[in-house]
Amino acid sequence: MSRKRIRFGGPARQSAATTPTQLDAEVHNLSLDGRGVARVDGKTLFISGALPGERVRARVTTRHKRFDEAETLEVLQASSERQTPPCAYYGRCGGCQLQHLTPEAQIQHKERLVLDQLQRFANVTPEIVEPALRSSDLGYRRSARIGVNQRSDGELLIGFRRQSSNKLIDIDNCPVLEPSINALLSDIRPLLSDAGNIKHVTHLDISCGDQSGSLTLRLTRRLNDECISALQQLCEEQGFKLYLQGNDNQLQAIATGAAEPSYRPIEAGPELQFVPGDFLQVNAEINRQMVARAIQWLAPTATERVLDLFCGLGNFTLPLAQHAGEVIGIEGSAEMVTRTRDNASRNGLANVSVFKSDLSQDIRDTSWYQQASGQGFDLIVLDPPRAGAEECVRQLRQYGARAVLYIACNPASLVRDAQLLIESGYRMTRFAVMDMFPHTAHVESMALFEC
């Protein structure tokens, strides 16, 4: 009787002889997540810390049926585009993936990646590829969620998640954060360290406007009055609003005298106030360039109607309203709708209407559509989340817009939605990538579609 070992599902385990723990590889490309791509014995290998044109010694960390994953142990032949990472925590902190690649090469890689995806999967080639939007690669991030933990011996940890881990790495300074955030963190550390047991503080949410900012402490139970008073004084000195947020997710404002945080999407443009939890483009300089280019590309006139889908705080809505005859903003969050209406009123823009609607669903039966769509729209702006705007795009042909501006934070969603727009009779006439998140694998781009 044969006694073969029974395997209970899963692929057969590969022997160490066929998949060695360490190997040498020639890297020929970068993946969507910023890892080097190599082929070893006919199988794709994704290598963290490796760059195109390099020969590296790597350690295989995970094996799959169609590909393997590895980490760089030694760079045997370095790329001319490799640089010394500007952050002392790089490689341990999970916040950045590309600090070993020069900023110029990072954005070039991202541009090639999106253009290649558009051509390969949607058969779309932009008529004009405009220069990428660039900003400083350091000190650019104006909002962040920063973890807080306390060990059993009382040692305080303030920082970001470690690479491939839920554990925190303690940091003194993050070079991609705005200087005002680093200054605030520097003073919060001793304050919390002296507060005794603070295991009920889970993280800090910090956002900066043009002149002031907000600090929110996420808590599982209330802080003591002495600690709150010290935080209040610190925020007063540094120009931050202070909020406490408990398990009920309600914000409790602690008076500090700081101005309401706000920013201007374009120079000399409307002023947009915000509160903790509102979505902000994290890179203020890129956002200003993006909104300015949107106005340039769309060129709205005083007689045209604009539809701004996923309008948020009115980042595009209000600047466009300064040029167009009428702008209709649509947003899924009731709080953001209220904020956009208030921002429009505060800036004296009477030609703005804002409605709440779930844009992942068919919108033809919604009250706002019945009210606003009768005259059609000349221009449409789409600034969707990572999932894209498939449902909206499928309905765009009925609006009769002469141009559609698509802001993409996910190349895959852009590819899918671009294909739908092309099928609806549009052409991608202009395209540009945006360096919204330098040193990370995140790719942001904008594309103009015209009839």
The CATH superfamily name of the largest domain is Vaccinia Virus protein VP39
Strand content: 25-35%
CATH level-3 fold name of the largest domain: Rossmann fold
Task: Characterize the overall form.
Answer: flat
Question: Nearest-angstrom radius of gyration?
Answer: 25 Å
CATH architecture of the largest domain: 3-Layer(aba) Sandwich
Order of adjacent strands in the largest pleated sheet: 6-21-22-20-19-16-17-18
Number of helices: 9
How does the major sheet shape up?
Answer: 8 strands, mixed
| Overall tally of structural domains | 3
Q: Which CATH top level class of the largest domain fits?
A: Alpha Beta
* Cα separation of the termini: 73 Å
Structural class: alpha/beta
Count of extended strands: 22
Quaternary structure state of the chains depicted: single chain
What integer is the average pLDDT? 93
Stretches where pLDDT falls below 50 for ≥5 residues? 1-17
Helical fraction equals 10-25%
Enzyme class: transferase
Domain TRAM: 16-74
Catalytic activity: uridine(1939) in 23S rRNA + S-adenosyl-L-methionine = 5-methyluridine(1939) in 23S rRNA + S-adenosyl-L-homocysteine + H(+)
Active site: 409, 409 (nucleophile)
